[in-house]
Amino acid sequence: METTGIHHVAIICSDYKKSKQFYVEVLGFSVIKETFRKERNSYKLDLRVGSSAQIELFSFPNPPQRVSRPEACGLRHLAFVVENIDKSVCYLTSKDIQVEDIRIDEITGKRFTFFSDPDGLPLEIYEN
């Protein structure tokens, strides 16, 4: 198997309007397509991240909670590349989003930090 990248990451949210606002208006991802699936009473929102990756944001009635911390088995976090981490942190904090202290990746020497989406999903910004 030869892959050329990651196509998408799927996220199920508890409050569709709140998560849509966060990913579109706060993080600035553009909407590719929004679909309401009546038979499932569910939205599917396709978002463009960068030049080729996507996030699929889903809503379902009463989704079960998933443990994500501390260090639960499964998807650990979703990381986004940024050119300037200081500028990105200032932007996020101006939107009242709590951001952890910037750390240095001991393997690459690159700077990174974490914040959370409206459902507490750990998100990372990683300086290019």
Automatic annotation (TrEMBL):
Residue ranges of domain VOC in the record: 5-128
> Which residues does UniProt assign to the signal peptide?
none
CDD domains, per database record: VOC_Bs_YwkD_like
Record-linked InterPro entries? Fosfomycin_Res_Enzymes, Glyas_Bleomycin-R_OHBP_Dase, Glyas_Fos-R_dOase_dom, VOC_core, YwkD-like_dom
Keywords, ordered alphabetically: Metal-binding
In terms of domain of life, where is this protein from?
A: Bacteria
Question: What name does UniProt use for this protein?
Answer: VOC family protein
In which organism is this protein found?
Funiculus sociatus GB2-A5
